[in-house]
Amino acid sequence: MNHAEHSRWQEAVHHLLDVHRPEQAERLVRQRLAAMPKEAEAHQLLALTLLSQSGRIAEGLTAIRQAIALDPQQAAAHYFHSALLLRNAQQIEASRAITEALRLDARNATYLGYKAVIANSGRHFEEALEAATAGLSIFPGHLECLYQRIIALRRLGKRRDAADTIRRLTYWHPNHAIAHQLQGEEAFREQQLSVAESHFREAVRLRPTSDQSRKSLREVLEWQAEAAFDRQQLAQAVILYQDILLLEPNQPEATRKLRDARLLQHYSQLPFLWLQRWRDTSLSGSNFSLLTYLSRPLLLALPLLLALGARIILRVRYALVGPEPLLEDGWFYAGLLWAAATFALALFPPIPLPVLWLAVIGGVMFALRNSYFKWQQGVRKWPLGATLLLSPGSMALVNGHGNWLNADGATEAAGFLACFAGLLLVYQVLCPISQPARTPLS
Questions:
Q1: Cβ atoms of residues 101 and 85 within 8 Å
Q2: Which of 107, 124, 356, 438 has the smallest number of CB atoms closer than 10 Å to its CB?
Q3: Which helix (H) or strand (E) segment is 56 a member of?
Q4: Boundaries of CATH 1.25.40 in the chain?
Q5: Does domain 187-267 sit in CATH 2.60.120?
Q6: Looking at residue 391, what is its pLDDT?
Q7: What is the pLDDT of residues 236-275, one digit of tens each?
Q8: Where does 122-233 have alpha helices with state H?
Q9: Is-contact 39 6, C-beta < 8 A?
Q10: Cα Rg of the chain (Å, integer)
């Protein structure tokens, strides 16, 4: 009965440590010590609970030394003593403690594995390899011995032997985070980035608190994101940079790269973005309900409206200029068509920025041409027409620049571009160039 009770409380302590609740495990051990203050194993478990908590190494050393004083022939106590000493950066003392543990229990793979840990931490890789190999001769699948053997082989430059040991570790522990971490490192070294990413993701899933796994995953994601960015696979680059920021939210380099990738992704879609927006809006029918009802009568009246508009324009032109041959004035009609095309462009935002520049610069050229010819004809005035057109035109360009950063920003340019087209149309009609009358050849 007492033995069963003794086993139950020990199992409860180990369970709490396995689920990362060392504070509760410590409380349970202290309750046991309150009843049994001379129990060496209780002091040993108290040291183990303190070892699992940060900043409590000194208390753990006190507890384990009390356990050794009560039962100096307990090999596990010397093993825990070695772990606490190494955590406290006392490498020589830790080596002595694990040697004492092995003296008491020479065929223990766990103690040999920890001897390899101490040797690797002191850069004694041959000694670590020897200890790990000895542990594997006792238990071929011992995780710590396999892992420390891999570290030693890598440090000694024996990559092929290390790869063979990784395969052995994966065979014995296929679902362990360390197995996926090591496989990911090998794949990363061989530039198999997608394979490395899958292994690192699995390692992070199995051990979310591992800084090493998270760092390795971030590194391989950075390599993949840079490669995708260089190949202009911008959608994939955006996804990868977002994953990096999930691992490390405040990383400035990933934040900057994500912004650049989104910017270039948007810019690469600009030639098709305005057309897609127009199609989406047209298919929805929500903004064109009135036009849908009036489309047929407007189409029937369109030829008549065009004829009346042309008649009015030609009459105004005739009244201002005189009976010149209008059909031969190509610049006049080109200006009218340019204004009409610019106005039509303003009806379908967002407008690609290169097209916006072309519409504004081309329209201003008509006004500058008229001003130049009037200057030659003796009208020495500042080109007010071009200045007037530059006001809405420049605002259209400024607002249209938002299309580089935000697809909806270019819609603000549509109103200014429509004003620009209207002013260009009025300017072409009301400010023509007086052409000299032609005389027939004799």
A1: no
A2: 438
A3: none
A4: 187-267
A5: no
A6: 61
A7: 888 888 888 888 888 888 888 887 777 776 655 554 454 4
A8: 125-138, 143-155, 159-172, 177-189, 193-206, 211-230
A9: no
A10: 41
Give the pTM.
0.58
Which residues have CB under 8 Å from 265's CB, separation 6+? 234, 235, 238
Mean pLDDT of 129-142: 94
Give the tens place of pLDDT for each residue, 36-46: 888 888 888 88
Q: Are 77 and 64 in contact (CB under 8 A)?
A: yes
What is the secondary structure of 249-304 as a DSSP string? TT-HHHHHHHHHHHHHHHHHHHHHHHHHHHHHHHHH-SS-HHHHHHHHHHHHHHHH
Place of tokens 């060392």: 22
- Tell me the one-letter amino acid at 30: R
Torsion sign over Cα 396, 402, 404, 406? negative
pLDDT at 255: 82
Assign residue 285 a region: left if phi > 0, alpha if psi is -120 to 50, beta otherwise? Answer: left
**Six-digit token pair at 95?**
């080596």
CB count, 10 Å around CB of 381?
9
Give the chain's end-to-end CA distance (angstroms, integer).
137
Query: Is residue 142 within 8 Å of residue 109, measured between CB atoms?
Result: yes
Report the candidate in 176, 165, 174 with the shortest Cα–Cα distance to residue 140: 165
